[in-house]
Design brief:
By secondary structure, the chain is mostly helical. The chain has one domain. Helix content is 81%, strand content 6%. It has a two-stranded antiparallel ribbon with strand order 1-2. The longest helix has 82 residues.
């Protein structure tokens, strides 16, 4: 008996004696390739399902966090900057008034 040659997962004789042996070998290869492609598609679908949903939930949480917490902080920061500008303006006016006297 001749040793088997592995093409991917399919086993074929190195020198098929007839067209029918070659046909069987190629059919086996086709079937196993179809099985692999099906398992790859299933794996890709499960990965998409397992990763896209948590990522979308995370993005939603981040968006809500920005709306609730970060917006208030930014609002307070802008008010502080406005007050600092006003204090600087009044301070400058006071210094010029003191110099005039």
């Amino acid at each position: 008996m001749l040793p088997l040659v592995y093409i991917g997962i399919a086993a074929c004789h190195p020198n098929p004696r007839s067209a029918s042996e070659l046909r069987v070998c190629l059919e086996t290869l086709r079937v196993e390739t179809d099985r692999q492609s099906s398992s790859h598609l299933d794996f890709a679908a499960s990965m998409r399902r397992e990763l896209e949903n948590p990522a979308a939930e995370f993005m939603t949480k981040q968006s809500n966090h920005k709306k609730t917490f970060q917006a208030n902080i930014e609002k307070s920061y802008k008010a502080k900057q406005t007050q600092e500008k006003y204090v600087e303006k009044v301070s400058t006016q006071y210094r010029t008034y003191v110099l005039v006297l």
